[in-house]
Specification:
By secondary structure, the chain is of the alpha+beta class. Helices cover about 35% and strands about 30% of the residues. Helix 1 crosses helix 2 (about 75-90).
């Protein structure tokens, strides 16, 4: 069975605005299977935005679980993320889910994995997926060396990632939280 590759997810925070973007490409082996997949969602009445890399069904299932945790913990993203990570690592069903989430709100940027990781970056930039390293590198350079707003950094970095990574395209979905 050929490996499915897809997705670049990038989040940048600057000047009180957090922007998250995801491309639309899904690749099976050496073929593009879909170019307009939507891997970014807003949760908690638009106060939280989440993007996933990995299996679509798994990513969507994890987003639903995160939304349940957000409801339970009154929108506290850090608390909800830690609780989801605990469940993800210990639950027999959830342990098998193959996806990585980036979750952001106006105050937090978090990377969540099935290993129980809840990672908050040193600099306000997070990326994951096949083109994540390309997007993150471009975003870091723009963040450190320009005064561009978060949205423009995300747009340009995703464009660069799409030019370099064969698993990333220019069909970008962007969400912003303030």
């Amino acid at each position: 069975m050929e490996k499915t590759r897809s997705t670049t997810i990038l989040a940048v925070k600057r000047d009180g605005k957090t922007v998250i973007a995801g491309d639309g490409q899904v690749t099976l082996g050496h073929s593009v299977m879909k170019s307009n997949a939507r891997k970014i969602r807003k949760l908690n009445d638009g106060k939280v935005a989440v993007g996933f890399a990995g299996s679509a069904a798994d990513g969507l299932a994890l987003m639903e679980r995160l939304e349940e945790k957000l409801n339970k913990h009154r929108g506290n993203l850090k608390r909800a993320a830690v609780e989801l990570a605990k469940d993800w690592r210990t639950d027999k069903y959830l342990r098998r889910l193959e996806a990585v989430l980036i979750a952001v709100d106006k105050d937090n940027m978090l990377l969540l994995t099935g290993n129980g990781d809840v990672i908050e970056p040193e600099e306000p930039i997070l990326a994951t997926g096949s083109g994540g390293d390309f997007a993150r590198s471009a975003a870091l350079a723009l963040y450190r060396n320009t005064d561009l707003p978060a949205r423009k950094i995300v747009e340009e970095a995703m464009k660069i990632a799409g030019e370099i990574c064969i698993y990333t395209n220019q069909n970008i979905v962007i969400e912003e939280v303030e």
